[in-house]
Amino acid sequence: MTAGHSRAAVLELLEVAKTAAAAGASVLAQRSVTGSGGDGLGMSNKGEAGDWVTEFDLAAENAVSRAIAQARPHDTITGEEQGTTRPEQASGYRWSIDPLDGTTNFIRNIVYYATSVAVADADGVWLAGVVHAPALGRVYSAARGHGAWVEVAGTSTQLTGPVPGRKGLILATGFSYDPSTRANQVEGLGELMEGFADVRRLGSAALDLCFVADGTVDAFGERGLNEHDYAAGALIAEEAGCWVRRPKLTSPLDGGPSTEDRLAAWTCAATLELSGKFPL
């Protein structure tokens, strides 16, 4: 039992998250399996070079929001593309949606993209999260106190994090759209890489966190993420037994963080022995 929440209540939230994420992923799955130029995707730029949104982002967010609202009409929903919707009689639960994490990958037909859905209680404790990656055929999920799982072709496997004591450690990271922040990240990459044999930059923070949970990579660290980028993936990594650091940022219900605060804050996941590798 999670503090203040029964086992049944938490698992019910997980089922809603799975249904909602599947609704979003089904929209993404309609993308043609060929082509990398973005034709027919309804692309537009959100301001910074490389920060794209497509008609699929919007359609997937609508599909996720409808699924949540149908099951839980009194919950608040915060979506990446359309902001926060608060019902008049709010339950205190809030959903964080990234309908298409990895939009550039989606445009270029690189398979690392997913729909991410997570829910927190009134105290901001994340209770359930799902990262549904249709091009990979994987559904990652977790409920607080009930472990983390990946489902592939109908078979579910519990996740237990990276292999302890493994040689040739791999770090996953990402880089900001903001040029000055990106330059600073590149400058600090050498120091961050100390103790790691190699690095991967896959373009989806939600999946990076899931890949720590399933042991594909040994650690993930990136600064400048938004809540919707990490909400589900961080819980999945945590429930897989990983050390996780979430950024301490102002809630979207209170206007969200300043750009400066967001760009300075780290999101990290790793084995406990690697936790000291990341800046404070």
Explain what you see.
By secondary structure, the chain is of the alpha+beta class. The protein has two domains: 7-158, Fructose-1,6-Bisphosphatase, subunit A, domain 1 (Fructose-1,6-Bisphosphatase, Chain A, domain 1, 2-Layer Sandwich), CATH 3.30.540.10; 170-277, D-Maltodextrin-Binding Protein, domain 2 (3-Layer(aba) Sandwich). It contains seven helices and 15 strands. The chain has helices spanning 7-28, 55-71, 103-108, 179-192, 205-213, 227-239, 259-264; strands at residues 44-45, 52-53, 76-79, 83-85, 94-101, 114-120, 126-133, 138-143, 148-152, 155-158, 170-172, 198-200, 219-223, 243-245, 266-270. The strands form three sheets. The chain has an eight-stranded mixed sheet, sandwiched between helices. A hairpin with a 5-residue loop joins strand 6 and strand 7. Helix 1 packs antiparallel against helix 2 (55-71) and helix 5 packs parallel to helix 6 (227-239). The chain is globular and about 50 Å long. It starts with 6 loop residues before the first helix and ends in a 10-residue tail after the last strand.
**What is the radius of gyration?**
18 Å
Helix content: 25-40%
Question: Structural class of the helix and strand makeup?
Answer: alpha+beta
The backbone outline, from C-alpha atoms, is globular
Question: How many domains make up the 3D coordinates?
Answer: 2
CATH superfamily of the largest domain: Fructose-1,6-Bisphosphatase, subunit A, domain 1
Our estimate of the beta-strand percent is 15-25%
Most strands sheet: 8 strands, mixed
Give the spatial strand order of the biggest sheet.
Answer: 4-3-5-6-7-8-9-10
Discrete helix count: 7
Question: Which architecture of the largest domain would the CATH scheme give at its second level?
Answer: 2-Layer Sandwich
What is the number of strand segments? 15
| CATH level 1 class label of the largest domain | Alpha Beta
Spans with pLDDT under 50 lasting ≥5 residues? Answer: none
CATH topology of the largest domain: Fructose-1,6-Bisphosphatase, Chain A, domain 1
